[in-house]
Specification:
Layout lengths: L1 H5 L8 H21 L6 H4 L1 E6 L7 H11 L5 E7 L2 E8 L4 H15 L6 E6 L1 H29 L2 H25 L5 H31 L8 H33 L2 H34 L2 H20 L1
Antiparallel strand pairs: 1-3, 1-4, 2-3
Length: 316
């Protein structure tokens, strides 16, 4: 019995370490949001984005100076690579498309760039406000739908734990965007919504095994809910890792070889896939296990068998 249990990866026994790790990540995310804040794309706040391509050996300071001389106030200039050629991605608060085009043309002329070496995209503040409202609505509907589905399919405790894990993933991901100052775009929002699906899938698979094992497992080894939960996670762990790795391959390919639009999506997806995999066995399942163990039935079994099992594990 002891040798069988010892072959399991001790997810639930190490739950406090996972909680500390997640608490640290969330704290760092909050600090990043407070200290650095989020950089939103023009789709959310309105403004102008100018994509300069094939700029040669022009330096970022030269580009910023040319734009300011042309009339842009406080432009954000970032280096970029398009089809293997160096360039710049410029963001500003200008919402007048005619004025933005004039500024871009003047800067290009001052730097000796061709007329077709840049592309100007201007979005008004009203459109940005609509995108913000739509994104917030999508997240709210997704959370409510998840709560409803897991509650109907399983139980309320499982749905709450699943949502806590999802919120953990979203907060940490947003924190990473705050620290890296990568812009939040609609593509990032789409990726975050997709991430919620992946994270929920891993969590529900584990919850399903726990539910089945709690009702049918009679092996004389896994008697407390902590033991059943750990056994259930181990049963599906290989499947979870395989799903994550096969999903990461195309995402990493998009991140390495895709254009700016694909990279926005891929970066958020990569972070979310890793976090979603971790949170299923590091947050959702341990939380559920702790919560379920407080139920009278499982509390009695914990009192009866947990100390004996711990002693047996120490002897092994």
């Amino acid at each position: 019995m002891r040798s069988f249990v010892s072959r399991e990866i001790p997810f639930i026994p190490n739950r406090k370490k996972f909680f500390i790790l997640s608490g640290t990540l969330i704290a760092l995310a909050v600090v990043g949001l407070v200290v650095r804040g989020l950089l939103f794309g023009i789709e959310f706040q309105g403004g102008t984005e100018i994509d300069f391509r094939a700029t040669g050996d022009i330096q970022i300071e030269q580009m910023r100076a040319a734009l300011e001389d042309a009339g842009e106030v406080g432009p954000t200039v970032q280096t970029a690579v398009t089809e293997g050629e160096a360039g710049f991605l410029v963001r500003s608060d200008t919402t007048d498309p005619t004025l933005a085009a004039e500024h871009a043309a003047a800067a290009a002329e001052a730097l000796g760039l061709a007329d077709d070496s840049y592309q100007v995209t201007t979005i008004g503040p009203d459109w940005g406000a609509n995108v913000t409202r739509s994104s917030a609505t999508a997240f709210a509907i997704a959370i409510v739908a998840i709560l409803a589905y897991v509650t109907i399919r399983y139980e309320v405790k499982m749905s709450v734990c699943a949502v806590v894990a999802l919120l953990h993933d979203l907060v940490v991901t947003v924190g990473i965007y705050a620290w890296t100052q990568m812009p939040i775009t609609p593509n990032v929002v789409a990726a975050l919504l997709t991430i919620m699906g992946y994270s929920l899938y891993d969590t529900v698979v584990e919850f399903n095994r726990m539910s089945e094992n709690a009702n049918t497992l009679k092996d004389g080894v896994h008697r407390t809910f902590h033991q059943i939960a750990n056994y259930s996670i181990n049963e599906v762990f290989t499947r979870t890792i395989n799903t994550t790795l096969t999903s990461l391959v195309p995402v990493v390919a998009m991140l390495l070889f895709g254009g700016a639009t694909l990279k926005d999506f891929a970066f958020a997806m990569m972070i979310g896939l890793v976090l979603g995999t971790y949170s299923s066995w590091g947050i959702a399942s341990p939380l559920l296990s702790v919560w379920k163990t407080r139920e009278p039935k499982w509390a009695k079994l914990e009192d009866r068998y947990a100390q004996a099992e711990a002693a047996a594990a120490d002897e092994a």
